[in-house]
Design a protein that fits this description.
8% strand; five-stranded mixed β-sheet; single chain; globular; 374 residues; 7 strands; two-stranded antiparallel sheet; alpha/beta
């Protein structure tokens, strides 16, 4: 294993020194993100946090099998009584999968270095809340982005009173590891949702609950002890039934990427262009790797006669894999409206070549007009 030490981390990697350095760089940026919420004294961290990353999943499995006699599908934080032996262990994947795992389990490792027995809803809820942050290599920093991966599941849970009754808010605050494991399909969405609600609610009294929960943690307490400390100190004056209602109302108001795209398409179909634009822009704030919002933003810009903006949106949709014939036709129509007739002709001919059945008739009339104009 190649080893690289940064200020707060020692990273071991079998992929080479550059890989160890890059992981350490991301972890230092992640630590800054974590501490925007935790406000822990880094001088008290003591030894560097240990991280081991394997290039091959099989080597990762083999290592875990020797340590804990089992394997995992994701990263794992292995904690020992001796903090010098504790380590975060993971394996390389595509960046879109690697970074969320690094952020999630890196948060658990960082929090555990100070409070080994934080309530599970705080530990897992905040780790999930932060895991979708976006890394900027130019500034070596992470920018928080909402993680709505659990939103649909949580909405379904809250819509079913029978399921909701299996894990009340009070149950969640006091949950043990065994109870969380037994209700894992309910625990994870609810823990994420509670943290998201407490941090993102416009009601400052809700925000204060989480800060008081973090302030109540005791490094020497047990899991059940810390859970009760948080309940008694941060939730003592809170009407749990009222908070549950506020929580459920807030979650039901949230919209996923797919929700926003569907809304935008409906608004576009009704010619509510300003509202549609806002919906597609909100969708892109959640996910920028899907061509649908870009295509519709191009259509809206075209109707607003902002042909250059339309072209840029269409080209982005093309880069992300939209149907080639469709986007060439859209680019051709846009170029024709912008009086770039030679360019329009190229795009229209390409659309017809790619899908003559759908676009031959549509393109012919425009191509004939171009011939006349030129």
């Amino acid at each position: 294993m190649y080893s690289w030490s940064s200020k707060h981390y020692r990273v071991l990697s079998d992929s080479g020194l550059p890989a160890a350095m890059e992981t350490a760089r991301k972890l230092e940026a992640a630590l800054s993100l974590y501490n925007e919420y935790l406000h822990l004294d880094l001088e008290q961290l003591g030894n560097q946090l240990r991280v081991r990353i394997f290039e091959d999943k099989r080597d990762y499995d083999s290592y875990l099998d020797r340590l804990i006699s089992e394997t995992r599908s994701d990263f794992v934080y292995i904690s020992y009584t001796d903090p010098n032996r504790s380590e975060l262990v993971g394996f390389h994947r595509e960046e879109k999968d690697f970074d969320p795992s690094l952020l999630h389990y890196g948060f658990i490792q960082f929090l555990s270095a100070y409070v080994p027995t934080a309530p599970l809803w705080i530990e897992e809820g905040m780790a999930t809340y932060l895991e979708y942050a976006s890394y900027d290599p130019m500034t070596d920093s992470y920018r928080w982005r909402p993680n709505f991966a659990w939103l649909d599941s949580l909405k379904n849970i809250l819509a079913n009173e029978e399921i909701t009754g299996e894990l009340t808010l009070r149950d969640l605050l006091l949950i043990s590891k065994e109870q969380a494991q037994a209700r894992i399909e309910i625990f994870y969405p609810t823990a994420w949702g509670l943290v998201h609600f407490l941090l993102q609610s416009t009601d400052k009294s809700h925000n204060r609950i989480l800060w008081e929960s973090l302030a109540a943690l005791d490094a020497g307490a047990t899991l059940s002890g810390n859970s009760r400390r948080v309940l008694e100190r941060a939730f003592r004056w809170v009407d749990l039934a009222g908070l549950q209602n506020s929580f459920e109302s807030y979650i039901s108001s949230l919209m996923t990427f797919n929700d926003l795209v569907r809304l935008g398409v409906d608004q576009y179909g009704s010619q509510e262009l300003s509202s549609a634009r806002a919906s597609f822009e909100r969708a892109l704030a959640l996910r920028s790797d899907n061509y649908i919002p870009y295509y519709y933003l191009g259509l809206i810009a075209y109707q607003d006669k902002d042909f250059e903006a339309a072209r840029e949106f269409y080209m982005r949709a093309m880069d992300l894999g939209i149907d080639a014939a469709l986007i060439n036709y859209a680019l051709g129509v846009n170029a024709f409206a912008d009086k770039r007739y030679s360019t329009a002709r190229e795009y229209l001919l390409k659309a017809r070549e790619l899908d003559p059945e759908s676009y031959e008739e549509k393109t012919d009339s425009l191509l004939q007009r171009i011939e006349i104009i030129q």
